[in-house]
Amino acid sequence: MSHKIVFLALNALLYALCLPASAQQPARMFRIGFLTGSSLSSQLARNEAFRQGLRELGYVEGKDILIEWRCYEGKRDRQRALADELVRLKVDVIVAVGSGDIQTAKEATSTIPIVMMVGGDPVASGFVASLARPGGNITGLATLRPELSGKRLELLKEIVPELLRVAFVASPNNRDYADEKKEIELAAAAFGIKLRVLDVKIPKDVDTAFQTATREKANAVLFRVAGPLAQLSAHRSQRSQSSIGSRRCMTLRNMWKPADL
Q1: What distances in angstroms separate CA 195 from CA 5, 93, 155, 160, 222, one per listed residue?
Q2: CATH class of 2-142
């Protein structure tokens, strides 16, 4: 899935630079601004896949492109400042990871092309006019997360027909939290599943959420946690399998590790 996301984002990036894949090496070095809430060290695999995708398209970092990484590492007060810095550097394109970063980049510039990665509904968020005719300076990948939330629960039900109780571990700070929660609640009601919503805002909430899911004998856990909490949730879920795995616990993760709140 991650490679597919990178592939789509890179195609959008290529479009934003207005160069065909078969073009010869550009005469100047293009600058790509990359705005994310996660640290580079926590996303080594994703970042290397991004570089590899660029190389496959004929772009070599340090030779004909320069990537300006700007990571605010969860410190929201730095988010806009880093976006403004990329604009001042006059980068050729900005890659924004998640709805929050896309919105910030949109507010920072209306002329530099913005490639969105793992955003929610771009129309509802006001990023584009429509999917058919987006207009403006934003392109890229939309995951339509709220609409897929109910589908994830449906897939769990298909995998485990006797599914009765599901814990939905999510961060209320996520941009699409309310819509996703609504979609999952509707699906749970349709399938006769008892849904337990467990909010996580800070690291200690992750342990509390898994303790509650275990105590209430959840048959499955649905994740919607982003940023640093996503890694912590992944670790806790693996550790919790021994205690709730005996009840055939299925864990379906919807975690895009860069902060996209």
Answers
A1: 30, 42, 15, 15, 10
A2: alpha beta
